[in-house]
Amino acid sequence: MYAIPLGEDGAELRPLEPWQAEEFLTHMDRGRESIGRYIALADAVSDLESARAFLQGYAAKAAADTGRIYGIWTDGKLVGGVLFRTMDINQGTAEAGCWLEPSAVGKGLVTRACRVIIDWAVEERGIHRVEWIAAAANEASIAVARRLGMTKDGVLRESNLHRGEWQDREIWSVLAPEWRANRKPS
């Protein structure tokens, strides 16, 4: 297995695979309330069977080249992750996303990890447009989109029913030429 360093603090980005379901579930249990505030992941991964099935779904997406999932580890502990929820290589589009348990918040881990996967998607897979969809109330996620140099495309009003409440969702994106221009040293 490989790990990509995310900086000098020892954080690493690694593939998150079905054999890690127990570690994934333990991580989700630590952050369930916080993670579940805006995204369905915390509700989808509730026991070992559902954790394994969730990761197996992403293994199938990776095999079909339609998605990817990666974990973020600090001090040998899984604390969050980033993913491409969808990837359409033919259309050149992908939707990125993230989650993080409270102990890891405020360290720039998600932004650093997203830079790695977006670089890969744009440069290695030919993705032209990377999208970021976040609940409009999820200020932390929207801040990541801004730090990644994304542009707000619009708001989908009450487009997501989450835990019995309708959420507005914001759509952000970055195009490959913009990404490359922003990544070049000044």
List the helices and strands and how they pair.
Layout: E1 4-5, E2 12-15, H1 21-35, H2 41-44, H3 48-64, E3 68-74, E4 77-88, E5 93-100, H4 109-123, E6 129-135, H5 139-147, E7 151-162, E8 165-175, H6 176-183
Parallel strand pairs: 5-6
Antiparallel strand pairs: 1-2, 2-3, 3-4, 4-5, 6-8, 7-8
Radius of gyration: 16 Å
Shape: globular
Largest sheet: 8 strands, mixed
Strand content: 25-35%
Widest β-sheet, arrangement of strands: 1-2-3-4-5-6-8-7
Cα(first) to Cα(last) distance is 34 Å
Q: What is the element string, with H for helices and E for strands?
A: EEHHHEEEHEHEEH
Content-based structural category: alpha+beta
H/I helix tally: 6
Low-confidence stretches: none
The tally of strands reads 8
Mean pLDDT metric: 94
Q: In percent, how helical is the residue content?
A: 25-40%
**Oligomeric form:** single chain
